[in-house]
Design goal:
two-stranded antiparallel ribbon, 2 strands, 217 residues, mainly alpha
């Protein structure tokens, strides 16, 4: 990576630091490899540990770690097909602070989108939990806006869907609606459907009798 690498600005924006911090962190990783120390670099650069962790996660997300020397250079994997977001209580401090303000539906829905995105891209990471934590911080402003203006998801993709109504229940609803709207023909059709589903032998009813019965209800 050079000081003119276009990824520097993107990574710095995601990590909420300056581009020089990203480049110096990358240079330290290249020089120290697995001996790189988060707290020591944070002290040197005048940052907090969470800022350095965010830089490392963003570097990994954009495949910008020094070749063979960055953290997690071995043991990288594709995200598991059954991956789910970790409990909010297990997230790093900054990500946890953000996620605690999300609804459970927002957290689960964005987690599912995260899994689907990386499954389709087949990209390998050494620490998917750290990558997810970095994604939470990046998404936080958008999620809060969506929740404020009612655009956030209301159901978790992991929730069991409610059971569907039976055909007989639907027919009863159709009959009730037709009666409320004074729709004679539709009410008769719905009643015949109910009779058929209830195994009732149908019989012909004079139209006048049907209208009188509906008027009395």
């Amino acid at each position: 990576m050079t000081p003119f690498d276009p990824r520097l600005t993107i990574i710095a924006t995601e990590a909420k630091v300056k581009t020089c911090h990203v480049f110096h962190c990358w240079s330290a990783l290249q020089a120290m490899g697995k001996n790189f120390h988060v707290a020591a670099f944070a002290h040197f650069a005048g940052l907090e540990d969470r800022h350095v962790e965010a830089i490392l996660s963003a570097l990994e997300t954009h495949d910008a770690l020094p070749a063979g020397k960055g953290r997690g250079s071995t043991g990288k994997t594709i995200i598991a097909a059954n991956w789910t977001p970790p409990p909010v209580s297990e997230l790093p401090p900054q990500a946890r602070s953000c996620a605690e303000q999300w609804t459970s539906a927002s957290y689960a829905t964005h987690g599912e989108a995260f899994r689907s995105y990386w499954r389709s891209h087949k990209k390998m990471m050494s620490d998917w939990s750290a990558t997810w934590a970095n994604r939470i911080v990046t998404l936080h402003s958008q999620v809060m806006r969506d929740q404020k203006f009612g655009n956030a998801p209301t159901h978790s993709p992991f929730e069991i869907p409610a059971p569907q109504r039976s055909p007989l229940e639907i027919a009863h609803l159709e009959l009730k609606t037709a009666k409320m709207l004074g729709q004679t023909y539709e009410a008769e059709v719905a009643q015949r459907k109910i009779d058929r589903l209830s195994n009732v032998i149908p019989f012909n009813r004079p139209e006048g009798e049907l209208l009188a019965q509906m008027a009395s209800k």
